[in-house]
Amino acid sequence: MLYREAGDFKTSYAQDNQTFPLKLDRFGYYCILGVAVFVIPFVINDYWVNAVFLPFLIYAIAAIGLNILVGYCGQLSLGTGGFMAVGAYACYKLMTAFPEISILVHVLLAGGITAAVGVVFGLPSLRIKGFYLAVATLAAQFFLVWLFNRVAWFYNYSASGQISAPERAVLGVNITGANVEPWAAYLFCLAFLVASAWIARNLTRGATGRRWMAIRDMDIAAEIIGVNPLRAKLSAFAVSSFFVGIAGALFFAVYLGAVEVGEAFGIQKSFLVLFMVIIGGLGSIFGSFAGAAFMVLLPVFLKNALVGGLGWPTDLATHLEIMIVGALIIIFLIVEPHGFAQLWRITKEKLRLWPFPH
Amino acid sequence: MKLKFAAVALGALLAAGPVLAELVFPDLSYRTGPYAANGIPFSDGYQDYFTLVNERDGGIGGVKARVLECETGYNTEKGVECYEATKGEGALIYQPLSTGITYQVIPKASADGIPVHSMGYGRTSAKNGRVFEWVFNYPANYWDGASIAVNHLLDQNAGDLSGKTIALVYHNSAYGKEPIRTLEELAKKHGFTLSLLPVDHPGQEQKSQWLQIRQQRPDYVLMWGWGVMNQVAIQEAANIRFPMENFIGIWWSGSENDVRPVGARANGYKALNMHAVGADFPVFADMQKYVMDAGKAAGAGDQMGTVLYNRGMYAAMLAVEAAKTAQQIHGTPDITAAMMRDGMETLVIDAAKMGSLGLAGFGPEFAVSCENHGGNGFGTVTQWDAAAGIWTQITDYVQSDQQVIGMLVAEDSAAYAAENGITGRCD
Predict the structure, then answer these.
(1) Residue A338: other Cβ atoms inside 10 A
(2) Which CATH entry fits the domain spanning B142-276+380-406: 3.40.120.10, 3.20.20.30, 3.20.20.80, 3.40.50.2300?
(3) Measured distance CA(B273)–CA(B394) in Å, rounded
(4) pLDDT tens for chain A, residues 1 to 358
(5) ipTM confidence score
(6) Chain A residues whose beta carbon lies within 8 Å of the beta carbon of residue B40
(7) What are the extents of the domains in chain B?
(8) A162 to chain B: nearest residue by CA?
(9) Burial code of A126-144, b = ≥16 C-beta within 10 A, e = fewer?
(10) Is there a common fold for B19-138+279-359 and B142-276+380-406?
């Protein structure tokens, strides 16, 4: 009744092509953006930023990146952790080598460097497909982690092999280091997430995105209709790695402050981001957000509910948490294999008919 | 949904508010994952000692201690969450039992003004109190451990290690890499050859490392392992028939859980320690009476007297003594984290104090000062007796090579100070 196209007249192509064609959707989008920018920064504290918002925002960027590669272009990748590590170490080297340049620039450059590395590791995708490509990207994952562990230049020859983010500021406000206001770190990551989602959305609905999807759906057919597989696949690897690299840089510099490559960017990180994409919905920007939210928030929520709320022992709660999250993933994939994004699509379809479904 | 959850949690946070007359000691433990076998006894010992102090003495200076347990799984991301979740409740001291989490917490805790005590782990150069105001690592650190192990080998070889080969099997992380710098320095000084064999997390796969040891035939093997890696390494050493008495683990690689699975073939394996082993101290009678028999033990309550239980208890004991010292200095039983830091910085552990606690001879004597946050580097070597199922102390408390370590600490802490713009204190 409320949620429908009728009465919402478009008078130009631009209006017809907008991301949220329905008035209610647009309204909801601006509301959420407004709350995220103008309300949340004033009410959050250290706990909310470090336990909930920063991991959510950063994983959402990584999930958007991986979704472009896996969801839109159909190239299965297990190298996300390795590419995040490239972003983190690039950011660290840039931060320590050029302390006078803004951290904003460093994060973007780290994304660029990761994109270049991603293209190199994307080259095999021209010859190998599917599971075989997954194995090739797995090699990238292990090689990159090994490299950052092995070559002391990457961690500035520190005795422990850890990299620690020095203090850096944007417009006089600290973004990295120990003395960071919660709102500053939050807004910094939020800005990157909004920009990433905006770019990704506009890339995927344009000519580039159509080429990716053509390759995903059937690469031979795509080639016959004039899509250059070399350019399409490598551009997907580049754009995907760019976002993943930014996520890695933020993960290291803003969120954790000190990382160790094997622990922070191991294979489990690749799987985590892949699960986010699959659970959220392949080939959907909204799905990346939903998947990241599910995988980040659910464990924190369960932990607070079981330990804080019910007062259970921490080990029991952790074991239960692992079981509940695992069971939910399985149930979810059986009930809705296309992820949260599909659920959301179905909900919208139903809402359009509501309250007269026949 | 998200907002509702936010509102509920925020409400809970506000309602919790300032809790009166309680001393809060967070316990960032790990009872799950590949490191649980070592995390459980430590956490049990840590919590039980606070329970003992509450039950027997009515708290610390009359104020009850409250332990806030938070599960980290040895994972830095969860460690950060635990730190943020517990610091608002008036946490006095953090002992994360993880070098990775310690590195995370050092800048955060320093900014928030909460002391960190990384006992025998963490950032070694935190020994230099001039640079690290909020971080303590008494009574001994990794570099002391490396040096004590080498000193023990020197003793066995009549003071001469030239021409010998020592292999280091280490957890490929900040933790395992810490001793390398020291061992390289000591290799130069004593003329032995050092060979490095990293093992990746979690350490279940060590076939290739031990194959290398079989080929290279080093005279001695040192190990910096933790969790499941310890058991696997000792098993592999037994498999290649490496003489166990030439295999020395750091104090984190020497608990019952590490050697028991290997059975009789682990006999003779050596490990360092910074405190005594066994349950032969008067404090354990009290522990049995007030904690175990009263059904107030943490966990399953079956760990009393094991190496890591004792270490957890020792860590808690040092925290309690520091809190008492802080109460004396500031003349108030209700201490804050900043007062706790003052207590830690003036902490003196001598024979009389340990005796009065029912822990005579349990650990080395030391005194913390503004310049020295790391004690004097005393440690002991223990050996596993598989038939009896006990660790026996085979040396006295021996001191590490203070000259080499002092130099390395000064170098590393100066680098940290320069990176972070810290000017020294204590002058």
Answers:
(1) 17
(2) 3.40.50.2300
(3) 11
(4) 677 777 778 888 888 888 888 888 888 899 999 999 999 889 888 888 888 999 999 999 999 999 999 999 999 999 999 999 999 999 999 998 998 899 999 999 999 999 999 999 999 888 888 889 999 899 999 999 999 988 889 988 887 788 888 888 888 888 888 788 889 999 999 999 999 999 999 999 999 999 999 999 998 999 999 999 999 999 999 999 999 999 999 999 999 888 888 888 989 999 999 999 999 989 899 999 999 999 999 988 888 888 878 888 888 888 898 898 889 888 888 888 888 889 888 988 888 888 877 6
(5) 0.86
(6) 315
(7) 19-138+279-359, 142-276+380-406
(8) B174
(9) eeeeeeebbebbbebbbeb
(10) yes
B70, B81, B173: residue with CB nearest A300: B81
Distance from C-alpha of A305 to C-alpha of B66, rounded to nearest angstrom: 20
Q: Which of B193, B181, B196 is nearest to B146 (CA)?
A: B181
The two tokens of residue B375 are 């004690």
Task: Provide the number of CB pairs (under 8 Å) joining chain A to chain B.
Answer: 109
B393 vs B3, more confident: B393
Kindly write down the DSSP assignment for every residue of B87-137, as one continuous string: HTTTB--B--S-HHHHHHHHHHHHHHT--EE-TT-S-GGGGBTTT-SSEE-
Residue B377 region, left (φ>0) first, then alpha (ψ -120 to 50), else beta?
left
Instruction: Please write the tens of the pLDDT for every residue from B127-154.
Output: 999 999 999 998 888 899 999 999 999 9
Phi, psi of A175 (to 5 degrees): -115, -35
Q: What amino acid occupies position A5?
A: E
CATH assignment of B19-138+279-359, among 1.20.120.140, 3.40.50.2300, 3.40.630.20, 1.10.1040.10: 3.40.50.2300
DSSP H helical ranges for B124-193: 142-156, 174-177, 180-190
Cβ B70–A160 below 8 Å, yes or no? no
CA-to-CA dists, residue B50 to A101, A237, B88, B313, B339, angstroms: 49, 54, 20, 9, 19
**Exposed, middle or buried, A100 (CB in 10 Å: 0-12/13-18/19+)?**
exposed
| Cβ–Cβ below 8 Å for B2 and A297 | yes
Q: Is the pLDDT of residue B14 over 60?
A: no
State the Cα–Cα distance between residues A193 and A61, nearest whole angstrom. 6
In the stretch 70-129 of chain B, residues with CB closer than 8 A to chain A read 70-71, 73, 75-77, 80-81, 84-85, 87-88, 99-100, 103-104, 107-108, 110-111, 123-124
If we measure between CA atoms, which residue out of B53, B51, B25 comes closest to residue B114? Answer: B25
Residues of B numbered 191-210 whose beta carbons fall under 8 angstroms of chain A's beta carbons: which are they?
198, 200-201
* Distance from C-alpha of B126 to C-alpha of A152, rounded to nearest angstrom: 22
Contact across the interface for B12 and A264, Cβ inside 8 Å: no
Do A48 and B6 make contact, defined as CB atoms within 8 angstroms?
yes
